[in-house]
Amino acid sequence: MKIRVDQLEQHLAGARSELPVYLVTGDEVLLHDEACDAIRKHLRALDYSERELYHVDSQFNWDSLIESANSLSLFSERKIIELRLGSQSIKKAESDLLQRYLDNPAPDTVVFILANRLDANAKKSAWFKVVEKLGLVVEIWPVEIDELPRWLAGRISRYPIQLDREALQLLADRVEGNLLAAQQELEKLALLYPNQTLSASDVDEAVGDMSRFDAFSLADAAMQRQPARVQHIIQTLRLEGVEATLILWALSREMRTLVSIINEIAAGKSYDTLATKFRLFGKRKNVLRNASRQISVTELERLLRLCGDADQAVKGQLQTDPWLLISQISLGLAGIQVPSSQSA
């Protein structure tokens, strides 16, 4: 079966026996580590005291993994075969081998697979479907900004502190995209203010800006028309030394996609058909749907010309600050009027 990470604790509490295979997949480090620890703890309670660890790379010998899984422990102990897949993909021959093993798994042995976020193709693969059918798949998704205050409120219950609503929102703004920092800040606040209810001013004094963003966070914030958040993300990316070229690529990609969507809708295509064509799923599907209704092709083409100016500025061919142009482009996409490329 497949469950969300927030369902794992309840699932394990009701599980009286082990499964032959477990898979934890996702890029959120804190939640990934906690999910893996919970599964290991569950297996230890079922007397799985031996653990063999394998790191998969392009040279990894899958035959040795299966040989280990099928071999008896020297002390007849129950055994966990922990397979750290990371971002490595499983090719067809390896997939076939894993499936054959899971068709007749060794007794008293569990295969535990740790992976980064799997793409759509991996989730359609034969090996993934077998793992989902015979074992447990735990999928971990990032905590979005609008969900973060609620997530933090749940975490705070573990500590002898409370935060009022404004303090909770401020903390969410400071740690957006960085749950490891969120955990550390909660631990720090519990030490500084034990058994107290904290205000926004308390959080402001104690917590620095630990937010972590990428170029796609900026594009999302712009298309959701969040100009204040856009400016915050740009400032953070610049301080972190993110390449301006990468940001321009992400912004221009989304704007070109929007141009295509708007033109094809005008030609009579349905948005759902276009979402499939452009591989828009989940939150991104709704974000681009709304954006396509709020901005014109003319405006998008003007902003794309500004992207060209910014690219020239990065290369030193235009004497202006590329980050100023990135700010203008992003705010333009967020619905704020910006200068034309000629006046930039």
What does this structure look like?
The protein is of the alpha/beta class and 344 residues long. It has three domains: 2-139, P-loop containing nucleotide triphosphate hydrolases (Rossmann fold), CATH 3.40.50; 148-206, Helicase, Ruva Protein, domain 3; 215-333, Zinc Finger, Delta Prime, domain 3 (Up-down Bundle). Helices cover 57% and strands 11% of the residues. The protein is built from 17 helices and eight strands. It has helices spanning 8-14, 29-45, 62-70, 92-103, 120-124, 126-134, 148-156, 165-175, 179-192, 200-206, 215-223, 227-239, 244-266, 271-277, 282-294, 297-314, 322-333, and strands at residues 2-4, 21-25, 50-55, 79-86, 109-115, 136-139, 161-163, 196-198. The strands form two sheets. A six-stranded parallel beta sheet has the order 1-6-2-5-4-3, sandwiched between helices. Helix 11 packs parallel to helix 17 and helix 13 (244-266) packs parallel to helix 17 (322-333). The radius of gyration is 24 Å and the shape is globular. The mean pLDDT is 89.
Short recap of the structure:
The chain has 344 residues and is of the alpha/beta class. Helix content is 57%, strand content 11%. The strands form 2 sheets. Strands 1-6-2-5-4-3 form a 6-stranded parallel beta sheet, sandwiched between helices. Strands 7-8 form a two-stranded parallel sheet.
